[in-house]
Specification:
The chain is α+β, with helices and mostly antiparallel strands. The chain has a single domain (3-207), classed as Histidine kinase-like ATPase, C-terminal domain (Heat Shock Protein 90), CATH 3.30.565.10. 54% of the residues lie in helices and 21% in strands. The protein has helices at residues 3-39, 47-73, 80-94, 114-134, 175-186, and strands spanning 78-79, 101-107, 111-112, 140-148, 153-160, 190-196, 199-207. The chain has a five-stranded mixed β-sheet with strand order 2-4-5-7-6. Strands 1-3 form a two-stranded antiparallel ribbon. Strand 6 and strand 7 form a beta hairpin. Helix 1 runs antiparallel to helix 2, helix 2 (47-73) packs antiparallel against helix 3 (80-94) and helix 3 packs parallel to helix 4. The relative contact order is 0.11.
Length: 208
Amino acid sequence: MNDQTRELEQALREKEAALRELQHRAKNSLQLVISLLKLQTGRIRDPDARAAYDQTLQRIEALAIAYRHLHESGETRVDLGRYLKELATTTCATVPGASQVTVEVETEEIVGGLSLAVPLGLILNELLTTALRHAFPEQGKVLVDLRRIDAECAELTVSDNGRGLPPGFDADIDAAVMLAEALAGQLGGTFTSTPEGAFQVVKVRFQA
C-alpha cells in the first residue's frame, strides 16, 4: 500500500467520522426541539390550533426517528421496515382515539439512505394520521405494507376500512394528502388512491 492510498483511506475515515458526528448532532437537536415543543402543549386551548400543532410535532418526530435509526445502524442506510414500524407505533400513540383502531404493519427487508427514509416516513405519517383522524368514529383497521416489486422498485401501501372522508372534506386541497403526493414526487415515484372492497387503498411506488 503506497502513501497516496493510505492518505486517501485516512481522509475517507475522517469524512465518515465527521458525517456520523453531524448525524448524531442532528438527532440530538431534533429531540431537543421535540422536548421544547411538548412543554407548550398544555397552553394550546383552541382545538384547530392544537390539531395543527400536534401534526407538526408528529412530522418532526418522524425526522428524529429516522436520524436515530441511522445513528444506531452505524452506517449510512436505514432499515426502512423497522423505521416504518416504529413510526406507525409513535403516530398511533399521539392521535386521540387511535387506540380503537388496529394498525398492522408488514414489511420486507429494504434499506435506504435518509433521502429515501425521510420522505417515506413523512408520507406514512400523513396518510396514517389522516386516516386515524377522519375515517374512524368506531373500531376499524389500517394495514401498512412495504414490499419490493422488483430489483429496482418498492411499494408502500396504506389501506383502511374507515368510513371515508367526512362531507365537505376535499382531499385535493387537504394539506396532508398534498404533502404525501409531493413527497412521492420527490422520490420520483407514483401516488395512487383507489377503493378496493371495504378498504381505501393508497399506494406509493418508488425506486429503492
